[in-house]
Amino acid sequence: MRTSTSDAARLRALIDAEAQRAGFDAIAVTTPDAIPLAPVRLAEFVADGFHGSMDWIAETIARRSEPSTLWPEVRSIIVLAMNYGPDHDPRDLVSKRDRGAISVYAKNRDYHEVMKGRLKEIAGKIVARAGGDVKVFVDTAPVMEKPLAEAAGLGWQGKHTNLVSRAHGSWLFLGTIFTTAELAPDRKEIDHCGSCRACLDACPTDAFPAPYRLDARRCISYLTIENKGPIPDEFREKIGNRIYGCDDCLAACPWNKFASAASEAKLAARADLREPPLADLLRLDDAAFRAFFSGSPVKRIGRDRFVRNVLIAAGNSGDAALAAIVKQLLADPSPLVRGAAIWALARLVPETEYRDRAADGLKSESDKAVREEWARPVPARAHA
């Protein structure tokens, strides 16, 4: 859709004003052809297997790396960002081993829900003013938001592969509006990471084989959220008490010193999710899990995967008081939960008690994966 220079300028002023009114902290515009390197980098990521079990990435490479393939009519892409910076360093919770560490972004309402309605309001104003058509995306379609945000000038993809902003550090939610209107693009941001490698060194599981490259299979966020099976043994101790995602690489970024805490209650952490006790979380059945995490992104992984994560944290806690709850979960209907409970129990009770339990477990357990857990060498006990 052809737009005159003056009309485009007025439309951009409207978009900026509406974005500010809707609570967005940054906005910029780019074009659909502004990320020419994205297809090659994405193909390399998939070819190396770094996407793990996230098959949808491999299946949508063409649409994901070329915005005009996703929607041929698009002429401009508006990228909007919302600051969700915490009011403290989330890594402080890692030392409180009887508590569960949930990633900052997941401690309140699902950001998809928070942002999408606001983006639709802005998109509606664009159509009312300029006509044409629009599409709104918040991590709900094969859109590469981070390269587009870099091209638009909102920040740059840091060595941890996430967007870094000079104004907001590493704490930004991203959403996009694709439009048929032609808007003047903003200037691309340059990389300001320099020689810093704080984010790389902060990763507990060495998930970065090189700067700007992430092997998701080693990432705690992938292991605790996307991974549907047991947590691989080599990562269990390293996960510590991180029960949903991991913020270590984001929190280590020096640019965070310029970031302010999220100003809206909708993005601030729920009080009961700031430092939730592992004991309470282990007791969640499916109904209680759904009720407790209603409206939260945590709900999407389901109770069994979540309790699996909590059991790994319990095994790392060194808190023998948790053993009684862990023992109850040895009889859980979910093999995933039973398997994680075995590992946790071995870390919390004396070896002689565990060996007696293992002998009984091998006699009564029918699930192959759970039997393999019982048959493993006894892991070293955790120490508080």
Q: What would you say about this model in short?
A:
The chain is α+β, with helices and mostly antiparallel strands and 384 residues long. 43% of the residues lie in helices and 9% in strands.
Key attributes of the depicted protein:
384 residues; alpha+beta; NADH Oxidase; 2 domains; two-stranded parallel sheet; 43% helix
Itemize the secondary structure elements and their pairings.
Layout: H1 5-21, E1 26-30, H2 38-47, H3 55-59, H4 61-65, H5 67-70, E2 76-83, E3 101-102, H6 111-130, E4 134-137, H7 145-152, E5 156-157, E6 163-164, E7 172-179, H8 198-202, H9 220-226, H10 233-239, E8 242-244, H11 248-251, H12 271-274, H13 278-282, H14 286-292, H15 302-317, H16 323-329, H17 335-348, H18 351-364, H19 368-375
Parallel strand pairs: 3-8
Antiparallel strand pairs: 1-2, 2-7, 4-7, 5-6
Task: Give a verbal description of the structure.
Helix 15 packs parallel to helix 17 (335-348), helix 16 runs antiparallel to helix 17 (335-348) and helix 17 packs parallel to helix 19 (368-375). With 384 residues, the chain is an alpha+beta fold. A hairpin with a 5-residue loop joins strand 5 (156-157) and strand 6. The protein is built from 19 helices and 8 strands.
What radius of gyration results from the CA coordinates?
23 Å
Q: Which oligomeric form is depicted?
A: single chain
The CATH topology of the largest domain is what?
Answer: NADH Oxidase
What structural class do you assign from the helix and strand content?
A: alpha+beta
What fraction, in percent, of the residue positions are helical? 40-55%
Q: What is the strand content? A: 5-15%
Task: List the domain count as a whole number.
Answer: 2
Mean pLDDT: 94
CATH architecture of the largest domain: 3-Layer(aba) Sandwich
User: Total helix count?
Assistant: 19
Runs in which pLDDT lies below 50 for 5 or more consecutive residues are none
Kindly report the spatial arrangement of strands forming the biggest sheet. 1-2-7-4
Query: What series of H and E elements makes up the topology?
Result: HEHHHHEEHEHEEEHHHEHHHHHHHHH
The top level CATH class name of the largest domain: Alpha Beta
Q: Major sheet: size, sense and barrel closure?
A: 4 strands, antiparallel
Give the overall form.
Answer: elongated
